[in-house]
Amino acid sequence: xxxxxxxxxxxxxxxxxxxxxxxxxxxxxxxxxxxxxxxxxxxxxxxxxxxxxxxxxxxxxxxxxxxxxxxxxxxxxxxxxxxxxxxxxxxxxxxxxxxxxxxxxxxxxxxxxxxxxxxxxxxxxxxxxxxxxxxxxxxxxxxxxxxxxxxxxxxxxxxxxxxxxxxxxxxxxxxxxxxxxxxxxxxxxxxxxxxxxxxxxxxxxxxxxxxxxxxxxxxxxxxxxxxxxxxxxxxxxxxxxxxxxxxxxxxxxxxxxxxxxxxxxxxxxxxxxxxxxxxxxxxxxxxxxxxxxxxxxxxxxxxxxxxxxxxxxxxxxxxxxxxxxxxxxxxxxxxxxxxxxxxxxxxxxxxxxxxxxxxxxxxxxxxxxxxxxxxxxxxxxxxxxxxxxxxxxxxxxxxxxxxxxxxxxxxxxxx
Length: 415
What we know:
It contains 17 helices and four strands. The protein is mostly helical.
């Protein structure tokens, strides 16, 4: 029996069951909220939100058969399909606009765009494991944290600069990616997801517990910003007798200079990530990733070693997480365990899935979209994650393959 032929009584039963389950789940979350009255903490009921959620779920389940009939008859508008050459042209146009835009945008907009570029780096890195290799990684924030803490610790303890720590952060994250790759060689699907999720949580808990090394819950602060070929972009130089960037250029000091510089540096790191990943997927290593994704048994029959393929994917993916983590620490000037929770891993995975697994242009567009979405929902700060989840659900219903699915080069022979 198809969903279009479900009788009304069955739909009513499903709707009532779903409404009851919604009530059970939403009463402790939305219905009862803690409120401080003087020195006492009391429970304040908010039944209107509960009734709204229950009613919405009830109506959705009740009208679901009608919606299925209507959706089979009416086709929703879809996004245009871009070929390989069109995606390349679009990518070059986006990069050209990206290099010019910060000189005309406001300071707040440029700062938000810098955060979006960090997620672009992380999304392109995770795309190696999830999109190209077909392995699920739910602990990507762990490698992200390793990169950030590596820069912070090396700078605070040994005085190394950002440019010295950037390759070291990438190497340290790659080392942990290689170490994680060994115990997960025989795992796939849900089992792999659980192991990587546990790894991400272990890194966060270690950062929270090792007070002498990571600063514990307070983290590490006073992390310096990157320099321009050793020249500081600050109001005054930290070394006596040295000149700052604006003094050498003869400009009046402005805080916007650092904001624009961080944005351009993030854009250069995105270009580096794109260049490396583009070269990798065209090399035999990239073809091996795709072969493993399609069929591991067939991959073995071709003489390929799945062990090396998985290790290379985890290692290279972790490398870009380390680069993103080091830049994040430099931009924020502070790293603490709360910056690398499971929500970060879920958000980066959502960037890859929403953009289209294996699609680099799609990952870039999804990272920009998911970074801007919370900014538009600032008036609904308490429900930002709810709105985010709703957008993801609607997107998966409307276009489950992602915004821009990956396109493979095709050659047609004349008939």
